Amino acid sequence: MKDQELNNLIKMLDQIIANNLHHGDDDKVAGVAADHLHKFWARSMKQQIIACADGTSPELSALARLTIARLQAKPE
Fold first, then answer.
1. What is the pLDDT of residues 3-27, one digit of tens each?
2. Span 40-63, pLDDT tens digits
3. How far apart are CA 69 and CA 50, in angstroms?
4. What secondary structure letter does DSSP report for 48?
5. Which domain holds residue 33?
6. pLDDT recorded at residue 3
7. Residue 35 near residue 17 (C-beta atoms within 8 A)
8. Which of 10, 30, 41, 72 would be 66's cystine partner, CB 3.0–4.6 Å?
9. Which of 66, 57, 58 is nearest to 25 (CA)?
């Protein structure tokens, strides 16, 4: 996986989270963002961002990690 591709996925995830901050608490924001990823991201994109979270990527915020955890809990 190319670093630039991963950086773009992280940037998109951060934008999705930022666009949903109006939902209030972190749990709600992460749930809405995870639903978006589940519905609209390609399987390969989801696999890449999950693999990033499984590693020690310092680029991921706590809210991004929570979103990815919620995404992982969803059935494919």
1. 899 999 999 999 999 999 999 999 9
2. 999 999 999 999 888 767 789 999
3. 8
4. H
5. 3-73
6. 85
7. no
8. 30
9. 66
Locus of tokens 């990690």: 65
pLDDT > 90: what percent of the chain? 78
Residue 8 gets which letter from DSSP? Answer: H
Q: What pLDDT is recorded for position 1?
A: 47
Nearest CA-CA partner of 61 in 53, 70, 72, 73: 53
Provide the number of structural domains found in the chain: 1
Residues 6 or more apart whose CB falls under 8 angstroms from that of 3 comprise none
Q: What are phi and psi of 71, to 5 degrees?
A: -60, -45
Mean pLDDT, rounded, of the chain:
92
Position 5, amino acid: E
Rg of the Cα atoms in the chain:
11
